[in-house]
Amino acid sequence: MRNKQNMIICIGVALILLIMSVGNAAANDVLLDVAFDIELTQDADTNPVGTEHTVTATVTQIGFAGALPAPDGTIVNFIISGPNAAKSGSNVTTGGVATFTYTGDVVTTDIITALAYSPGFVPGVVPCTCNTVTKTWIPGGEIPEFPTIALPVVAILGLAFFFQRRKE
User: In order of start, what are the domains of the chain with their CATH numbers?
Assistant: First the structure.
């Protein structure tokens, strides 16, 4: 229900802005972009620090013809809030879908959202609805140091050798 209300608001604002700009548009002016609805996958996920995480955005273009998959080449900015914010990035859609992969460096929880726009347009001019997803980074599965593994193995082998020699 909330998504439908957001879409109606997006369409209404886009129509108002389009009507206002049509009267003033010259041959070389850039018209307004269409509105987009973005659905990010994996509402919540947990991974060890140092591993990769991929977010998939399904982008729908909202226009006069109704809701259609975004055309190929639509730009999607993936925005990360939190200590891994510097990992934010962009990708383009193919068949209405864009993916983004990043590696977390810090034990934290990231909040990820997205913004879509057509090439040649300014991002954020036309409203865009998008859900948010969370990514929790936990301490990585580190490889134990050599003595942690080697000492017990050597002790077991030594005991096996000792008891074998005792039998003889």
Answer: 2-143 (2.60.40.10)
